[in-house]
Amino acid sequence: MVAVDKSENVLSVNNLHTYFYNRWGTVKAVDGVSFTVKAGETLGIVGESGCGKTMTASSLLRLHPQPASRIIEGEIMLDGDDIMQYPESQMRDVRGRKISMILQDPQTSLNPVYTIGNQLVEALTHRTDETAKERGLRKLAEEALRDVKVAAPNRRLLDFPHQMSGGMKQRVVGAVAMACSPKVIIADEPTTALDVTIQLQYLRLLKDIQARTGMSIIFITHDFGIVARMCDRVAVMYAGRIVENGPVREIFNNPAHPYTAALIGSVPRLEERVDRLFQIEGQPPQLYDLPVGCRFKARCTFAKPVCEEAYPTYYQVDENHNAACWRHDPLWESAPPY
Amino acid sequence: MGVSPPLLEVIDLKKHFAVTKGLILQKIIGQVKAVDGISFTINEGETHGLVGESGCGKTTTAKTVLRLEEPTSGSVKLYGKDVHQLKGDELKEYRATVQAVFQDPWSSLSPRMRVRDLIAEALIVNRRVSKEEVAARVSELLDHVGLHPAQASLFPHEFSGGQRQRIAVASGLASYPKLILLDEPVSALDVSIRAQILNLLWDLQQEYGVAYLMVAHNLATVRYMAHKTSVMYLGKIVEQGDTEEIFNYPLHPYTRALFSAALSSHPDIVRDEIVLPGEVPSPIDPPSGCSFHPRCPVALSEPDLMKRCKGELPVLTEVAPGHRVACHLYSGGADPLPADKLKMHKDGGKAAAIAKKQLAAMTTRVED
After folding, report:
1. I need a labelling partner for A265 at 20 to 30 A (CA). Which of A102, A150, A243, A258 fits?
2. Shortest CB distance from A279 goes to which of B54, B195, B358?
């Protein structure tokens, strides 16, 4: 167990914009995203595909596709330093050591022609501490595998990725990501390729490691079940922006943005059969053709003409809980309906 | 009314695939028992859910029902007739009666066909219809699945994922089928679109009385859609019965573990999580006796029971009306656990309250 100061902000992202420029125009994949992650905290970024979750994550590591996309503006404060100002050479020291990522599909994130041991050792060479020199990388790789609960690690080091099952491979990917004990781990839908029983094993493992090392996790997912199980705080994304941000229980009990409420209501439940699922009509807007006002307006059951006029600012709903929705404006009740 | 045969009857179905070795002189070195003796029936207008982890034989079962695979033994009967023996007109009739909607509408719809032709294909191939009838049916179907009839002349790439799945559903419905196979119908779609498609499938069932065989790994989806559920593990059905009964009182240790591993829908609903040791064994060489025994938390804690589980294959036996389990725990005729202890979600009431509250918050605006 590592004692961490839970009030300290490890990562704070301020007004991040990542745009793609292509023949349709400007695709605003990430359009003004701000959030903070405290030490030892798990933040969930929830949203449907194409809402900018993954682009936000890769922008944090500055691994967004280049030259197709560019970070237009924004500030990423990692551990007190603005990594946006770092040159590329310095970013190499940040990736893996301070911030690291677990990708969705373990089949493609491991190199099929190198052994597991080889790939772990490669990640471990970026460690700068003394233990690495003293104990030898091979030994450390074995320990890293033991940490992610892979049985018989010394034999497994000689295996190639195809000799392992999906769940095992994802553990190895986790071990590689955590090899240099980063402060922040971004887990981008790490369990979508896994079966439910294996998913639970993996989620518990991540929680265990977090409790032991005090790292922060950013969990990117579209599954509210994972959010409920894993996260302390949730940021809900829609069409490139965070529409609601708050503690996990607040989000589930009093969703302040209609999109959050609709999304939670549209998921079938295992515990009880609801008579009819709430369905969100229509589809999300195209990111190169965004409306001026609220981006959810066309699908929202509460919309009024004011929603078209301007994008709402963040309204403080509760302590640490804010939402970008005009319904929380004091003048909402008096606004004319359609 | 006499005893009419049910819509679909699957009787002791087995599908084994040979594992071969060598290039020229191939030797059969083993059998993958993808489906190993499963039985279930589907009545008209009913949904049967097939759940299990990947590799448990769900899709092979679906393929065999669709006549895309020949069974090794056992039979699939539609209205009492073995579908694998059908020929000529009867086969044509079967193909019109049984249709399928697949997981991924990006690959299941031909990119070179217009929506009109995609929907009409099943109708033209299987039924004798005039051009006017086809056009009328296509417009009717598009309207039913929530698309505009004018969209019939577009190509699939002009639609979003949810709309494509609607087209796939429309094309499945075209030939007035009695049974539609749904192979993970929503897992390739966006979260906000899934409810649209599930509600659509539900409404179409109410309207046309079509039966569904639904293959899914998402348990909550199956609970929402299915009347009856079968839980599969390594090619066998370990538990089968009415959906509500199974989800409220799961009996087989595997079912209980599977349900406990599915994440709850609210942070306040906490379940006893049963973490199974290890992973699903290879179906090439499945464990002896009950194939679940090496991972079964009950058997692992009781050595006496373990001996039986290792040596003896449990059979599917009825333990309560409409609830059958294949497990030695329940085969002695004894009632091993009281009902309240078996109840899976002790705080199910809380979940219902939360769901109602959320739904009410969403619908108040619509009503006024």
Report:
1. A102
2. B195
Right CATH for B8-232 from 1.20.1600.10, 3.40.309.10, 1.10.3720.10, 3.40.50.300? 3.40.50.300
Mutate to test the interface with A, among B232, B362, B366 (most CBs of A within 10 A): B362
Closest residue on chain B to A223 (Cα): B191
pLDDT at A135 over 90: no
DSSP letters spanning A240-282:
TEEEEEEEHHHHHHS--SHHHHHHHHTS--SSS--SS-----S
What confidence category does residue B26 fall into, taking pLDDT thresholds of 50, 70 and 90?
A: confident
- Counted across chains A and B, CB pairs separated by less than 8 A come out at 163
**Across the interface, do B263 and A48 touch by the CB < 8 Å criterion?**
no
DSSP A95: B
Residue that the structure tokens 């990594």 belong to: A83
Question: Which amino acid is located at B114 in the chain?
Answer: R
Second CATH level (architecture) for the domain A9-98+182-328: 3-Layer(aba) Sandwich (3.40)
Region B103-117 average pLDDT:
90
In sequence order, what DSSP letters do the residues of A37-83 get, joined into one string?
EETT-EEEEE--TTSSHHHHHHHHTT-S-TTTEEEEEEEEEETTEEG
B205, two tokens = 């069932």
